[in-house]
Amino acid sequence: MNAPDNKLKKVAYYPGCALEGTGHAYNRSTKALGSALGLELEEVKNWNCCGAMEVKNIDPKIQTYLSSRVLNIAANEMKHDVVMAPCNGCYHNLKKAEYDLAHDQGSRDVVAKLSGKAGHQTYEPGKIETIHALDWIKRAVGEEGLKQRVAKSLSGLKVANYYGCMYTRPRHIFPEKDQGAGSESTSKPHFMDDLLAAAGAENVDFALKTACCGGAHTLSDSDTSTKLVVNIIRAAEAAGADVIATECPTCHSGLEMHQIRAEKNFGVKTKAKVVYFTQLLGLALGLSARKVGLHENVSDSLGFLKARGLG
Amino acid sequence: MRKIAEIEAEIEASPGRAGRFVALAEEVLEIWLEAHERAATRETCEGSRLLALHRQGARGDPSFNACRETCRELVYRENLLASPGEHPDKAGASEAMRALALHLAYFVGGKLENAKLGEFCCSSRPLRVN
């Protein structure tokens, strides 16, 4: 087990658009968890959208520019070495921009041109490290650190950890993964499992932990998204889970909303609770349900968790 | 050629039939190719026809690979079950394959019903570049 990485005690924080909207509970619980663990977040000043799906589907180099602007502010203006993005989409896009700028002259040219037009410094690859909220807690605190701080164990909670598709794909933009002991795996990610186990949860393995939730199609093709979500929830329930832990606002909202939609429109009822991993860890540290934003979730897990002495 | 809904129904009704799931996933991708007026390959990729069909359906290098990973997960478990000896993943492999095959069928089926949404999402082409 690695020693806590002190470099991560204070990092630049890039919440991204979703965490100001449907994923606000993730924003709230990430900040509350960090604070309870003695970690500091400094929000990236005047940040913009990472380019997400919509921009990327029009022109991927515009997405690279938008993400590079965020990286530039965090690295060159705020002088951070590390930027943490809890949203899988933002995390993925910052990593992709980093990769494209390091490997593709065309991307470098577009970013230099647009940065000049916008009147800011051009981001040079390698100036800052992008990490996910899972990396942050795992590396800054670690399982041992968490165990020492647990006030209310998650013991008895059977959790399926759902990572979604963007946390590990495509593999080439995550060179730090698959590096042996201590590193994250792209085929079988385990950081969320490790952290929740340290807080006392019983993890269950299920095949769809990195499957697509249909998040990108949730408005244009809702029925397909509903089917994909039901398949994920059923697989988790078949593995014995009563909670699905999430680490992406798009996946989380998709699971919550399509769980309800499946019941309303198709009469398909599932009962697993959908909770952010940051909410579960916060509860384990003794934070209140309100402090971790359980009231902001769409699905109601409050009674279920309270009955287990959490929140 | 069957409809994807029929394949979905067969997958849903086939718990424990691990040997059938890769063939059903191949059938899903054959339907995709047929709908795009392309003859499904009989070739294999890394020893698997399913992976070859995905590569054919995705046209070139997919940028994202969610469906490819679903196919690879299926093939991994097929190989695992065919290999001798104990392995912790063997116990739940059949149920996992059912869920994976269903996921592929749902996704590709959805794409076929909504043609304007493009190819597999992992290989959709940016408008400006094409």
Judged by helices, strands and strand pairing, the structural class of chain B is mainly alpha
Main beta sheet strand tally, sense and closure of chain A:
4 strands, parallel
Q: Label the overall shape of chain B.
A: globular
Supply the number of structural domains of chain A. 2
Largest interface: A-B, 32 and 30 residues
Helical content of chain A (DSSP H or I, runs of 4+): 40-55%
What is this structure, in a nutshell?
Chain A is α/β, with parallel strands linked by helices and 311 residues long. In chain A, 45% of the residues lie in helices and 10% in strands.
How would you describe this protein?
- The complex is a heterodimer of chains A (311) and B (130).
- With 311 residues, chain A is of the alpha/beta class.
- Chain A is 45% helix and 10% strand.
- Chain B has 130 residues and is mostly helical.
- The model of chain B has no long low-confidence stretch (mean pLDDT 84).
- Classes of the chains: A alpha/beta (311), B mainly alpha (130).
Task: Present the secondary structure layout.
The complex is a heterodimer of chains A (311) and B (130).
Chain A: E1 10-13, H1 24-36, E2 40-43, H2 52-58, H3 60-77, E3 82-85, H4 88-103, H5 105-118, E4 129-132, H6 133-140, H7 142-149, E5 158-162, H8 191-198, E6 202-204, H9 222-238, E7 243-246, H10 249-266, E8 273-276, H11 277-284, H12 302-306
Chain B: H1 4-12, H2 18-35, H3 49-58, H4 66-82, H5 93-113
Overview features:
heterodimer; A: 311 residues; alpha/beta; Glutathione S-transferase Yfyf (Class Pi), Chain A, domain 2; Rossmann fold; 2 domains; 12 helices; 8 strands; 45% helix; B: 130 residues; mainly alpha
